[in-house]
Target: Selenocysteine lyase/cysteine desulfurase
Amino acid sequence: MTSLDIGFVRSCFPAFSEPALAGQAFFENAGGSYTCRPVIDRLSRFYRQRKVQPYAPYAASHAAGAEMDEARSRLAALMGVEEDELSFGPSTSANTYVLAQAVRGWLARKGGAIVVTNQDHEANSGVWRRLAEEGIEVREWRIDPGTGHLDPAGLPPLLADGRVRLVCFPHCSNVVGEINPVAEICATARAAGAFTCVDGVSYAPHGLPDMGALGADIYLFSAYKTYGPHQGILLMRRAVAELLPAQGHWFNAGTLFKRFTPAGPDHAQVAACAGLADYVDALAAHHGAGGAPPLERSRAVHRLMREHEIRLLRPLLDQLAVRNDLRLIGPRTPETRAPTVALALDRPVAPVAAALAAHGIMASAGDFYAVRPLEALGIDPARGVLRLSFVHYTSEAEVAQLMLALDAVLAR
Model:
């Protein structure tokens, strides 16, 4: 396996050949990534040739349904789950909301408590906390107020009485950036008789989850932040999916991937998700892993992505570490974090983002729906942070452009 061929990677994304984006370095990837060519091609083809009700006996309908099924089966294989353990929804926020309603009904009968963190994006926090209105006990696993670290040692005391049924936490926070030890946390929860729900939105763009290795019962992420169309992807192990009350139409309850889909799916967006599998397979084949089974291909691509990101992240973190006019949120070591870098500044952050734009840096400032972790870190959410986020298609030259721009803008 060679190192990541950044030229090949960027050739798979039409955005990099768009004249309107020339000279612009994209550092807002945590809010939504560029879309790879196979997804765009599939989406365009579906709207041109297959925009009919799927699963009917005529040719266009058959092709539409087959492509939707292809998306589910190929993505499931890349992540090590059964085909019907993967379902699509309009977004991760919507999928988590539906899931919380199912848990509400389950715990109303069974009783018990749930654990949430204050490191999460609000989508994996607020919906669970609102279950307290139904008398369900909600326990908070809190981050270190200085570093944002979610200490695994803080979980066992919350589980000690055996009442916790579900532990909800992020693979990594969209502002702290630290990669949490998911497998360790899931093993701890399982030993205490609790299921786990992992918000993978901020991690999946850096490598699709290997569900067997992680040991999670539920894992959610957003395709539109992972080079795809605007869909949320929900992975749920059969044991949990069959235990929770269905939230879709009653006559669909017997189909696992329809149990938590209250409305009809967006056919074209689901079909286009097969393009994500096309892209992973193309990366694997280009780098010598094309003959491996699907899960091995995904693991190989994951390694390539992370190695490239770590190499590019190191000089940026080194540059930020020596400045005394900002606070870098999260770890200082690139191996332990995603390349999502949030900065609390000694000045308003919105004008800094605007000034970076003049240097060709596309970034943003705000609270990023991470109000709870910012408050826990002593940062006023109204003031917010500057967030700089990149992925494997980011080039070394773009990181250099960012570093020069930061020096110029922060020197003012």
About this structure: The first helix runs from residue 6 to 11. The chain has a mean pLDDT of 97. The radius of gyration is 21 Å.
